[in-house]
Design brief:
Blueprint lengths: L2 H12 L3 E6 L2 H14 L5 H8 L15 E8 L2 E8 L2 E7 L6 H16 L6 E3 L4 H7 L4 E2 L5 E2 L7 E8 L22 H5 L18 H6 L23 H5 L10 E7 L1 H8 L9 H10 L9 H9 L3
Length: 309
């Protein structure tokens, strides 16, 4: 590990973040692992097409001397979002990484760019398998639920990936590791209501995961086999993470509490577009990171909590 990388790690840790740098040769390993699982039929084809096919393993054209991959882990809290409907208020959870995810990514890019510039190096965002890179780089380990965990952060973090021309001759690349405590623990498997976590194989059956279904485009209604009572978040799912012992120190970490009135809730349930919403409502959704592609999901996702009232 060269001295610049050691200094980079110290800078990130001083900011409360953690990072790893691996040589660009690992890009091929990432691609082969994803494509290998696909070719073996380990990914449901719909899950692969909608959730994994957007990866790009080609270095950016504006960084011709790319030499490394940088992954940065940023601790992220949950967010409470309150909705009033028919005289009753209900608080829903937005899991870590949703609120302000784009802004956090831009902040880290700016931080890295500012730090690397005096050393003569640059960064460019990458559309790579972030969870896999985080584990392979030695920064994280998998849980039985296929979610990655970092000591001191649990699963409450956002991984952000960049290409860079920062040289890296030695790295901490490793085989995928599973946390030691998972060996004799089946809590996440037992708490997953859909059967997405199974004892038959390690890889998550993502086609059964609530996250997959409530992040799909709105022209895909929830399958009939999904019990409405299983839904527990505005977007995503926190059941396996809430019950994981590794996350115990972070379960009560919430920041932000946006509240939507009856009128605002009605607009969202009825599928109002961004330009049909009051300015104050748009600003709330923007702060939550829901104004762009997630806005169109809200009528379907909210309906499981409010339509029956």
């Amino acid at each position: 590990m060269n001295s610049e990388i050691k200094k980079l790690y110290r800078m990130l840790e001083a900011q409360g973040f953690k990072g790893r740098v691996v040589t660009i040769q690992r890009l091929k390993d990432l691609q082969e692992e994803i494509e290998g699982c696909h070719n073996q039929g380990l990914f449901d084809e719909t899950v692969y097409r909608e959730g994994l096919s957007f990866f790009s393993f080609r270095p950016p054209d504006d960084l011709p001397t790319v030499a490394s991959l940088i992954v940065v882990a940023v601790p992220r809290p949950q967010t409470k979002v309150s909705f009033t409907w028919k005289g009753k208020e209900r608080s829903l959870v937005l899991p870590p990484t949703y609120m302000g995810a784009i802004e956090v990514s831009k902040r880290i890019k700016g931080l890295l760019a500012e730090w690397l510039a005096p050393h003569g190096f640059r960064v460019a965002p990458g559309r790579l398998p972030r969870k896999l890179l985080t584990v392979r780089s030695g920064l994280a380990a998998y849980g039985r639920n296929n979610i990655s965990y970092i000591p001191g952060m649990g699963s409450f973090y956002q991984p952000i990936v960049f290409f860079s021309d920062l040289p890296c001759h030695r790295d901490t690349w490793q085989e995928p590791l599973v946390m030691d405590r998972c060996q004799d623990c089946l809590i996440c498997l037992k708490k997953c209501p859909t059967g997405a976590i199974t004892p038959e194989r390690f890889l998550l059956r993502a086609e059964k995961c609530l996250v997959f279904h409530n992040e799909r485009s709105p022209d895909h209604p929830f399958p009939e086999w999904i019990d409405p009572s299983w839904h527990n978040c505005l977007v995503g799912c926190m059941l396996c993470q809430r019950h994981c012992p590794e996350n115990k120190p972070f379960l009560n970490w919430f920041e932000g509490n946006e509240a939507f009135s009856h009128l605002e809730t009605a607009l969202l349930l009825n599928g109002a577009t961004a330009d049909q919403l009051p300015d104050v409502t748009r600003r709330k959704l923007e702060r939550l990171g829901l104004l762009d592609f997630l806005l169109e999901l809200l009528p379907r996702n909210l309906s499981v909590f409010f339509r029956s009232q």
